[in-house]
Design brief:
Length: 473
């Protein structure tokens, strides 16, 4: 086969976006296209080599496999051995279990299937799966195993056989020629297992017992009481608080309703949350509800950007967009989004205050930027200090505008709880503490754990007790 320099040039161009993508540079978020280019190049080169051998009647499947083994296995084995050594030192037991499975899948050329079947919300982060990149190598290896045999078989039947094969491959993609719902129905493969459905139903019985935090429920009303005294309203940050607050309120003889929707700040006008917000606000108009505790991850609505704590912790997710049905400006700018978010929140507060509710406003909980339990465990395992924290200015930079807006609200019957006073001032002035000693205050990167929620609940309860509201009989 004639050497073609332009193909090597194309390889060099294709590898750049892949490297930049894995470096986390947003301007090349489509760096995976470089992998597609590599697949096309590999397919072209292998096909050219095989056709050349077939035309000269010197094709040998064993010789082809031998060349592939010599080209791939030495480097692959070196990578696997190095990764194994690092994994044994740095990776925690649960993650090491995933690693061992992925190691086996790489050796037997099915790592793409392994990672596809084990990717989900509760799967380990990509950063602790050192062999994740081998999925593309597995695709190539599977191609090398099957394609030469298929091509040799087709070659015996000449062009007529090639037509049959190409037609079959074309029919495989036929469902996508239908539009919309039809394409999804025809191509769906994931929900046909009765065994999987029954396992999920069985596992659901143990959901609450398996949590390392308070259950994140959406809407909970107390049993045996007609009157509800306090409503806890918000997104998943409110849910994380609800267990501790509800327990404290119950001990004081008060009943609680938890009205939360994950990913939805309870503010009037947020388009994706309008249905749930209307239902929640309708429930809040119950005259028996005297106090409303509002909590949310404000950053997801105000700017949507991932959090960077300045000491190595950085969320790896794209900027979240949000639309407002009550927008006061329409420009696609950060300043306009902030104005719309503040207007939306002020509208919600006015609605509650005008309805005679006492509002306890929970200020932003300091975020982590990393998975706090894992980061703290790794810190302790390497002999580091018994505290995990980041500089307070990172919190100020993140929430300075939000705090300024919340401080400016001049509404009667509005009370404030400031978690940053607990985690960023009282524990270790100048730093936002996420774990200290034997206490871990978060169960992931931004939701409070039982221990953290109890500290915030103490501030909430001091306000509730000072209000001395009438308790149900």
């Amino acid at each position: 086969m004639i050497y073609r320099r332009e193909i090597d040039g194309l390889r060099a161009i294709a590898v750049v976006p892949v490297v930049l993508f894995h470096a986390g540079i947003d301007v090349v978020s489509g760096g995976f296209l470089g992998v597609d280019v590599f697949f096309v190049i590999s397919g072209y080169l292998i096909t050219s080599i095989l056709i050349d051998d077939l035309e000269k009647d010197r094709f040998s499947i064993l010789r082809f496999y031998e060349r592939r083994v010599r080209r791939i296995l030495p480097a692959l084995i070196a990578v696997l051995l190095f990764s194994l050594a690092c994994a044994c030192i740095w990776i925690f037991p649960r993650e090491l279990m995933y690693f061992s499975r992925s190691l086996l899948s790489v050796l037997f050329f099915y790592s793409n299937i392994q990672f596809f079947n084990n990717t989900g919300y509760f799967s380990p982060e990509a950063e602790v799966q050192p062999l994740l990149h081998t999925w593309s190598l597995a695709v190539e290896e599977q191609f090398y195993l099957v394609f030469p045999l298929l091509l040799a078989l087709v070659w015996r039947f000449g062009r007529k056989g090639a037509i049959y094969v190409i037609s079959a491959l074309g029919l495989k993609g036929a469902p996508w020629r239908f539009s919309g719902e039809t394409a999804r129905i025809l191509s769906a493969q994931n929900d046909k297992s009765a065994n999987e459905a029954s396992c999920m139903r069985y596992a659901a019985e143990f959901r609450d017992a398996a949590q390392s935090h308070y259950p994140l429920t959406d809407c909970v009303f107390p049993k045996g009481h007609d009157q509800i005294d306090v409503a806890i309203v918000g997104d998943s940050h409110a849910s994380a608080l609800s267990g501790a607050v509800s327990a404290d309120l119950t001990r004081d003889g008060l009943t609680t309703a938890v009205l939360t929707v994950a990913g939805c700040a309870p503010w009037v006008g947020i388009t994706k949350c309008e249905t749930s917000t209307k239902l929640i606000n309708k429930a809040l108009m119950d005259r028996d509800i005297q106090i409303v505790v509002l909590a949310a991850r404000y950053s997801m609505t105000v700017d949507g950007s991932p959090f960077v704590n300045g000491v190595g912790g950085a969320e790896k997710k794209p900027v979240e967009t949000v639309e407002f049905s009550n927008a006061i400006c329409t420009e696609r700018t950060a300043d306009c989004r902030q104005k719309n978010a503040f207007h939306s929140f002020r509208t919600e507060l006015d609605l509650l205050v005008n309805a005679g509710k006492t509002v306890i406003l929970v200020y932003p909980v300091p975020e982590g930027g990393w998975h706090v339990p894992k980061a703290y465990a790794r810190l302790r395992s390497t002999g580091g200090p018994k505290v995990l924290s980041y500089p307070y200015p990172a919190y100020e930079d993140r929430y300075g505008a939000v705090i300024k807006f919340l401080d400016s609200l001049d509404l009667h019957s509005l009370y404030r709880v400031k978690p940053a006073q607990i985690f960023c001032q009282q524990m270790q002035p100048g730093s936002c503490v996420q774990a200290k000693g034997d206490e871990v205050y978060y169960f992931d990167d931004d939701h409070l754990s039982n221990a953290g929620a109890r500290l915030v609940s103490e501030q909430i309860m001091s306000i509730v007790r000072a209000l001395d509201i009438e308790k149900p009989q």
